[in-house]
Amino acid sequence: MSSEKQEEIEEVKEITDVIGGYGPWQRRIFIMFVLASFVPAWHNLVITFFAPNIDHWCSRPPSFSNLTVEQWKNNSIPIEKDNGKIFHSHCERYDNFGGKMMNLTTTKCDTWEYDKSFYQTTIINEWDLVCDDEWMVSLTQSIYMAGFLVATIMFGQLADRFGRRPIILICVVIIVTSGLATAFSTSFAMFTVLRFLVALGSAGLLTTGFVI
């Protein structure tokens, strides 16, 4: 064996001695971050349950509260067609309640009722994110993904400067505090800001954990 190859082998051995081989410590770190990665994955998918596609229609005024939902729809909500499907309008009602045969002009809803047969509470019926405000659901998800972008750029640099462990701990604190606070959001703006922070902590944890 040539002297150059012998030196390369010795150098590899020295590097291995420094970083260590695959052992108990590496297994613990691997398992820990595999389990930790479930949390960001759940946060990525949870918007499906925060903002499901639930049926909604113009709400009944107090003078018509004695009508059932079906009676209200049949008498005061116009019929629409889309791709061969027939359904009651989600965003319009007839001008004169309960008398569509007398007046066929329509107006936009100002309040809504929601189908709560499956989902009792969502951000959709909490803040009326329907019709003209339906785009706000996409907005909050876009801001969430922006948190991932910012975290990928920011936490990689911070981890190189201050170390992986303190950055990972900071990200865990961000995820826990903002994730819990999201459940108590009192406005759409608060919900969106907290979702951004959740994404910030989640992406920071994944990025730093992948490197370590």
UniProtKB/TrEMBL annotation:
Signal peptide: none
Keywords: Membrane, Transmembrane, Transmembrane helix
InterPro entries, per database record: MFS_dom, MFS_sugar_transport-like, MFS_trans_sf
Keyword Transmembrane helix in annotation: yes
Predominant location: membrane
Gene that produces this protein: LOC106476089
Cell compartment(s), UniProt: Membrane
Protein name per its UniProtKB record: Solute carrier family 22 member 5-like
Domain of life from the UniProt record: Eukaryota
Major facilitator superfamily (MFS) profile domain boundaries: 29-212
Segments passing through the bilayer: 29-51, 135-155, 167-186, 192-211
Organism (species): Limulus polyphemus
Ranges in coiled-coil conformation: none
Record membrane topology: Multi-pass membrane protein
Pfam families given in the database record: Sugar_tr
